[in-house]
Specification:
The protein has 3 helices and 2 strands; from the N terminus they run ααββα. It has about 120 residues and is mainly alpha-helical.
Length: about 120
């Protein structure tokens, strides 16, 4: 009974509209996945830099280090840079979590769309 209600709620679309929507949803998923991958790489780089700077922080907190801010290389001390990098890494992790949630939602919508319109990808051999 619930399937007949679900079928009646589906808007009839032309074949071309179905193809366009399918491609759009697929591109959005790929875009989100790419962005998540970039941010995960950036978070990992932050982690590597932090592990190196944490060693320097314990030995010599006043040691000079350089940081690229908005395209400008600035000189700071290790004790100034470490908290800022930790904050940036946490922010990146929050964005990754948000994008992952969006990806999951978009993927669910995509699967629902494929089910509702009985879409099956054509295998190209």
């Amino acid at each position: 009974m619930s399937t007949s209600k679900a079928k009646s709620k589906v808007q009839p679309l032309s074949d071309q509209e179905i193809q366009q929507t399918y491609s759009r949803l697929q591109n959005e998923l790929q875009s989100l996945a790419g962005k998540i991958g970039e941010l995960e790489q950036e978070a990992e780089e932050h982690g590597l830099v932090l592990s190196t700077l944490n060693e320097a922080l314990q030995v010599e907190p006043g040691r000079k280090c350089f940081r690229l801010i908005g395209g400008v290389l600035v000189e700071r001390t290790v004790k100034d840079v470490v908290p800022a990098l930790q904050t940036n890494r946490e922010g990146i992790k929050k964005v990754i979590a948000n994008l992952t949630e969006q990806y999951t939602t978009k993927e669910r919508d995509f699967e629902t769309f494929k089910h509702d319109y009985n879409v099956r990808p054509v295998s190209r051999a």
